[in-house]
Design a protein that fits this description.
This protein has about 180 residues and is α+β, with helices and mostly antiparallel strands. About 45% of the residues lie in helices and about 15% in strands. It has five helices and four strands. A four-stranded antiparallel beta sheet has the order 2-3-1-4. The protein is globular, with a radius of gyration of 16 Å. The chain starts with 12 loop residues before the first helix and ends with a helix. The structure holds zinc ion (ZN).
């Protein structure tokens, strides 16, 4: 299996070996998710809360297709791995919907690795535009490369989104 690591979330070789062995052992696609949190302090209360929430949401969506789940803390901060018994492209399509439409979707990154090709499924594989930046709306990778936004600015936005989500959640609960 050959992995192109340059355009995937998992950049660390040892980590990649770990995921590679999982995929080949279980022979199913793998979903990897982390918070899009800048800087060194990626393991904190905010990122852990967001990952726990998103893990629940995604596990609910894929239901019985989820064959294995892992919650880990690595250099990426808290992250979730799900092995899902479903077509990799379908998983990717669902994860794009979450990234685009969920309040917290803009704060997370999701990669889906295909067990047949061993590659991460890309948005452009099915004609979709690249992700847009959640601050200025330009192509997200341009902003990342040009370091257009400060860590503080990004972290503040993640805080706001989390607040928005939890307030909305409790309002709905009270109305019930
Ligand atoms: Zn931007």
């Amino acid at each position: 299996m050959v992995y192109k690591t340059n355009d995937t979330l998992i950049q660390n070789d040892a980590e990649m070996q770990f995921y590679k062995s999982l995929i080949s052992r279980l022979n199913m696609p793998l979903l990897y998710m982390k918070v899009n949190y800048p800087g060194k302090n990626k393991d904190n209360l905010l990122t852990n809360s967001i990952m726990q929430l998103m893990e629940e949401i995604i596990t609910d969506i894929f239901g019985m297709h989820v064959k294995m789940r892992l919650f880990r803390i690595t250099e990426d901060g808290p992250n979730v791995t799900l092995v899902i018994d479903k077509d990799a492209v379908d998983i990717k399509k669902t994860s794009i919907l979450i990234e685009n439409n969920h309040v917290l979707g803009r704060c997370i990154d999701i990669d889906v690795y295909d067990n047949f090709t061993g590659q991460a499924v890309c948005r452009k594989d099915f004609g979709l535009e690249q992700r847009t930046c959640f601050i200025c709306g330009d192509n997200a990778s341009n902003c990342l490369e040009a370091q257009r936004h400060s860590d503080d600015q990004i972290i503040r936005l993640i805080h706001e989104k989390y607040k928005e989500f939890t307030e909305d959640f409790y309002v709905k609960k009270l109305k019930r």
